[in-house]
Amino acid sequence: MNNKTYHDRAWLIQQYYDLGKSMREIARKCDASYWAIRCAMNKFGLNRRPDWQILQSPWVCEKRRITLQSSSGRAKNRSSHIGLCTGEKNHNWKGGIRHGGGYEFIHTGPFYISVHRQNMERMLGRKLKKGEIVHHVHGIKMDNRIENLALCSNQKAHRWAHSEEARVFLGDI
Hints:
Number of helices: 7
Order of helices and strands: HHHHEEEEEHEEHH
């Protein structure tokens, strides 16, 4: 595309306001810099969208420069994501599944829940009570099948489930 297209006021209005493209997207389309587009918009008297519109748009992960105050009192420029780059909007989204401490976690709304607890809640048909612990019978934390899960009423019962006495009693040894 002709890199001087952004010198046309009507074209800029169409791209920025009507199609909702960011200045960075327009710059990429024209093989120009962000600052060239910004200067052209200033030259034509075009106002930038307010931040509340930017936060509601699909380009919320566009980076901006912000100024922070350092401990010495000098201003520092930092690059920062504006808006919420969470969930599916994040470039690092892996389908809502995380792993930590040997366990698997799944994204459910605003937070993550461990898959073994979620499976036990489904099987029981209720939320787990405070203090209830889901035990992995075979000791494999990533094996979240119902056959490998046992519900312990408290921490003492869970410690017993890990003991050698329990393995003998349950026939694992």
